[in-house]
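[step 3/7] fold_predict: job queued, chain A
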Amino acid sequence: MEAHCDMLCRGLRAAGHEVDMFAADGSSDPGLVPICDAPYDEVLPWRVYRGTRELAAYQRDAFERVLTRIGTGEYDVVHNNSLFPEIIEWCAHAGIPCVTSQHVPPFGSMFDAVLASSQHPNIGATVTSRDQLSLWSQKGCADLKVVPNGIDSQAWLPVGEVGDYFTWVGRIVPNKGLGHAVRAARLAGIRLKVFGPVEDASYFADEVEPFLTDGIEFHGHKSRAVLRKEVAGARGALVTPLWDEPFGLVAAEALSCGTPVVGFDRGALAEVVGDCGYLVPSGDIDALADAIAQTGQIDRKACRRRAVQHLSVQAMIQGYEDCYAKVIAGARLASLPRLAWSSSVSSTSALLA
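[step 4/7] structure written:
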């Protein structure tokens, strides 16, 4: 979500918009408006304070500063990139045009806020895939717009020479399926480079570490610059979700490099990959190994083309601009208290991180 917010701010400015980002002090955005001294997880770690009054109070104090500022009427639209449902409720009743990026499936207070505000024409919400839209529609929220997450296609670039290895990139936890990926790599007889932070030490010790032999290498947590080079030089990228991921950022980044994707068909991954890879039933290690062997049949130029046309920052910004126009028009047509709006390309946005 943090990376998405950063890219969204930069993409909006590149498209001619003025943007203020409301977030914790220390964020690097040039339009930062600090709302708290530090990210809550540095002050009240989620693993310890989840569901406590202390954490709720810390978050509420921060977001109340946002509400006070956006209520002054200086913004054309609010883009809510947070998981704080009161933002939606407050904007709905104040008549402020607001679009919320839904990064999670429909549950809890966030779902309640979206459902309760669905009849307000100044309120909009987006999901990252048709797969997620289906989940929200089943619970009564069918009007959400699909805006896929964008990746920086000018940073994730192809390289001239492709190496004889595959990559796996992600957080090392059970639902990312690395244990299945290393077993499939052994069966397929390929070299596999694994990148990512170990967030579940026992899972890594039991399901991954025993297979780190014969060309299966663990490289740890690396910078984005290192990952771009390694992914671009790979024959293919293994993406093995064991849960219904709302998008598939790793897959999109690989395609932008011209690198085909081989993985498990869960969540929105098929929407991201299209015909630029091979997806097999989730958890099927034998099928995954067979698919790895077919990777060379995929046109790497087609992978790059798909990423630029459908998964780039520019495509994401265009989708959000359509949403902004709709909620601004909705506020005006409903004769709600509204903010100043210019018909020119440039607009002013408040973005909540």
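[step 5/7] annotate
Confidence is low (pLDDT under 50) at residues 336-346.
The longest strand covers residues 18-23.
exit 0
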